[in-house]
Specification:
By secondary structure, the chain is α+β, with helices and mostly antiparallel strands. The chain has 2 helices and 5 strands; from the N terminus they run E-H-E-E-E-H-E. The N and C termini lie close together (7 Å).
Length: 71
């Protein structure tokens, strides 16, 4: 399951980042979004979603959200 499939208000654990784009992986890592970290979906938007990672809230588009696998 990825962030696009997540329920609003629930906390999930990042399982993996599924992409070959090293820049995207580095960007998500800089946000604190990497394997084993908790992530909470705050809301789903038309073009993506708002997530809470560590102490920050971020808007990410559907393409990035689909690369973040959660459990």
């Amino acid at each position: 399951m990825n962030l696009n499939d997540a329920n609003v208000g629930e906390t999930y654990i990042v399982e993996d980042i599924e992409t070959d784009d090293e820049e995207l992986k580095a960007f998500l890592f800089s946000l604190g979004c990497y394997s084993g970290e908790p992530v909470t979906v705050i809301s789903h938007l038309k073009g993506g979603c708002t997530v809470s990672i560590k102490d920050g809230r971020y808007n990410i588009d559907n393409g990035i959200a689909s690369a973040v696998l959660i459990k």
